[in-house]
Amino acid sequence: MELILRLLEFAKTGGWVMVPVAVTSVLMWTLIGERLYTFRRLGRRDLAIPDAVHAVQGAPVNHFGHGLRTTLVRNFVRKRTGEPDLDKRILRECAMRIEPVIDRNLAVIAVLASIAPLLGLLGTVSGMITTFVVIAELGTGNARPLAGGISEALVATQAGLLVAIPGLFASVALRRRAEKLEHRLSQTTLLLQHHV
Known about the structure:
196 residues, mainly alpha
């Protein structure tokens, strides 16, 4: 409870800019969590290459689950026609339908991580404007009124950076994971096309 009160006091010190910074943070981390969950699903309990080859050749294989190869093989088996040339195109189409699932929301996460320091900068400008208004009204003789504007500027900048830095690291890590999954998907598709 004390931590929540301290966070609220921290947010109050940063001024109105803390609201969009908080919304950006919550949205960004929700999307990061969704991507981690999706990537974990695509990587777990997947068909082995020999089982995928057997399934594409028509052998009965248990292809239940949400792994990358499992999803590709399951979608292909549903649509296959028995004609090798057409089935190869169907396999490529099934792979192309999985690619957007891998890439979904990665650009949004990167944009949200990039927006956060700009929002912090906006808070800096807002805090400095508040400071200059106080100087214009009261002068520089009393430091206590000046501290509010300076505090607002620094807290907003700090909050923006606290959201942006881990968000950028997470964005890069998720992009690398997505590239690995896409590479695995293309390799699997090429391999399975030889066995259709």
